[in-house]
Design a protein that fits this description.
It is a single chain. It contains no helices and eleven strands. The protein is mostly beta strands. Strands 2, 4, 5, 6, 9, 10 and 11 form a seven-stranded mixed β-sheet that branches. A four-stranded antiparallel β-sheet has the order 1-3-8-7, with no helix packed on it. The radius of gyration is 14 Å and the shape is elongated. The chain starts with a strand and ends with a strand.
Length: 121
């Protein structure tokens, strides 16, 4: 099937930047949308950015203007550039991708394992 592996999380000071990556591997026949959610302690998971296979993007108001999502279709990888980070951005960030493992298998959503982003001085 399909596996998604995230990288790039960590500790950053307020006002700093981080770039998250999420690489899909395994059996991939076709890909559709990819994106990022996040979940802060005690809060529900929040969809923050999506990108279609042809590059159309959408952002939550909470990150618009600060975060940029991009993807490399050849590498089945999605990125999240996060700038002007503040403590409210502290959360576990999860990537997802909508993939078909084979032409005869319907599309499904696959998730990464999550990566911690902590914004603190």
């Amino acid at each position: 099937q399909v596996q998604l592996v995230e990288s790039g999380g960590g500790l950053v000071q307020p006002g700093g930047s981080l770039r998250l990556s999420c690489a899909a591997s395994g059996r991939i026949f076709s890909s559709n949308a990819m994106g990022w959610h996040r979940q802060a302690p005690g809060k529900e998971r929040e969809l923050i950015a999506t990108i279609t296979s042809d590059g159309n993007t959408n952002y939550a108001d909470s990150v618009k203007g600060r975060f940029t999502i991009s993807r490399d279709n050849a590498k089945n990888t999605v990125y999240l550039q996060m700038n002007s980070l503040n403590p409210e951005d502290t959360a576990v960030y999860y990537c997802y991708g909508d993939f078909r493992p084979a032409w005869y298998i319907r599309e499904a959503r696959y998730w990464g394992q999550g990566t911690q982003v902590t914004v603190s001085s």
